[in-house]
């Protein structure tokens, strides 16, 4: 089996308060069959289950979020749990760091 994982995208989304923008993120993630999606500048203080579904959709079914401080910042990592596992993670004031393991090979990054 290959030690590679599907596509990974890092995207400064410049706010996910608008449902239309969340839809664009989900459609892009699905179109490219992403295994991992990292979003910066989400500008969301609260992540409801509805917002999580609107961003990750059915494919990106797990996540780590760092809420925004007011209208500043915010980050999220979404992943396809059938492709990768997050072994460990840490959230800082402005960042999320994660150790990702590819399920098909056990390779980590």
Describe, in plain words, how this protein is organized in 3D.
The protein has a single domain, classed as Deoxyribonuclease I, Chain A (4-Layer Sandwich). Helix content is 19%, strand content 32%. α1 crosses α2. The chain is globular.
- What structural category arises from helix and sheet content? alpha+beta
Order of helices and strands: EHEHEEEE
Tally the structural domains. Answer: 1
What global shape is seen?
globular
Radius of gyration: 13 Å
Give the class-level CATH name.
Alpha Beta
**CATH fold field value:** Deoxyribonuclease I, Chain A
CATH fourth-tier homologous superfamily: Endonuclease/exonuclease/phosphatase
Beta-strand portion reads 25-35%
Total count of strands: 6
Q: List low-confidence stretches.
A: none
Distance between the termini: 17 Å
Indicate the percent of residues in helices: 10-25%
- CATH architecture label: 4-Layer Sandwich
What's the total helix number? Answer: 2
Instruction: Order the strands across the largest sheet as they lie in space.
Output: 1-2-4-3
Query: What characterizes the major β-sheet?
Result: 4 strands, mixed
> What is the overall pLDDT average?
95
Short description:
This protein has one domain: Deoxyribonuclease I, Chain A (4-Layer Sandwich).
Task: Summarize the topology.
Elements: E1 8-12, H1 19-31, E2 36-40, H2 49-56, E3 62-66, E4 75-79, E5 84-91, E6 96-102
Parallel strand pairs: 1-2
Antiparallel strand pairs: 2-4, 3-4, 5-6
Helix pairs in contact: 1-2
